[in-house]
Amino acid sequence: MLEEDLEIAVKVVVVGNGAVGKSSMIQRYCKGIFTKDYKKTIGVDFLEKQLRLNDDDVRLMLWDTAGQEEFDALTKAYYRGAQACVLAFSTTDRNSFEAVENWKSKVEEEVGPNIPIALVQNKIDLLDDAVVEQHEAEGLAKRLKLRFYRTSVKEDLNVDEVFKYLATKHIQKMRQEGEKESEPTTVQPIRQIGLFTSTGSASKSNNNNGDSGNIGGETITLQPSKSRVPSKSKNIFSRCKVF
């Protein structure tokens, strides 16, 4: 199978406070459905989505995690191995906005700071009830250096764009790391210190005398190379004093 034919699998965790629309977002993206009824996620839920991105076949594995503190110890275990993350908050829930940095820290404690992350403000169809100002959300995204999306799961607005962005960023990161690994390493030239020569006659003589001190029956002599011999003095030992 050619490398181009391989499917790229990406694990995406969707995190944030309860009732911000995480489950609805995944349902909308994977199944194209929306329900008004809120049902608290117990622990972790999971859905998959296949998509074609440029010339790549991508399988997104979307992990919907509970936002309540009582499930914190359980859900953190599912962050491990994540390759992308959605940080979600609600237009109508101030606490969910203020908790964004805490959620980001929880994810990065498990997977490190280098995965693609998108900051998502959901429920923008309820702007009349907004408790988060536009400049506040944009300021947070700028400070955290995150791509920012405003979405409405109900109206199916910008949901696809969030996950396409994360898949694209993961593929770029994966290929950049592959290029670094394939870069040839520079071999430093070896400086010649001396020349090794073997004397066959010594080998024969040693064998006749039964001397086992030379392994293999050869005497190895190390001679200094010409580049190491001082040019101004033929006798390099003339300056030495014996005490």
TrEMBL record:
Entries under SUPFAM superfamilies matching the protein: P-loop containing nucleoside triphosphate hydrolases
GO molecular function, one term: GTP binding
Catalytic activity: GTP + H2O = GDP + phosphate + H(+)
A single GO cellular-component term on record: endosome membrane
Keyword line: Cell membrane, Cytoplasm, Cytoplasmic vesicle, Developmental protein, Endosome, GTP-binding, Hydrolase, Lipoprotein, Magnesium, Membrane, Metal-binding, Methylation, Nucleotide-binding, Phosphoprotein, Prenylation, Protein transport, Transport
Pfam entry (one): Ras
EC number: 3.6.5.2
Subcellular compartments: Cell membrane; Cytoplasmic vesicle membrane; Cytoplasmic vesicle, Autophagosome; Cytoplasmic vesicle, Phagosome membrane
Polar residues bias: start-end ranges: 220-231
EC top class, as a word: hydrolase
Start-end of Low complexity biased regions: 198-212
Residues covered by region (Disordered): 197-231
Names of required cofactors: Mg(2+)
Keyword Transport carried by entry: yes
Keyword Membrane: yes
SMART domains, per database record: RAB, RAN, RAS, RHO
Mode of membrane association: Lipid-anchor
GO biological process terms held by the UniProt record: anatomical structure morphogenesis; autophagosome assembly; intracellular protein transport; system development
Main location: membrane
Protein family: Belongs to the small GTPase superfamily. Rab family.
Subunit relationships: Interacts with SUFU.
UniProt-recorded name of the protein: Ras-related protein Rab-23
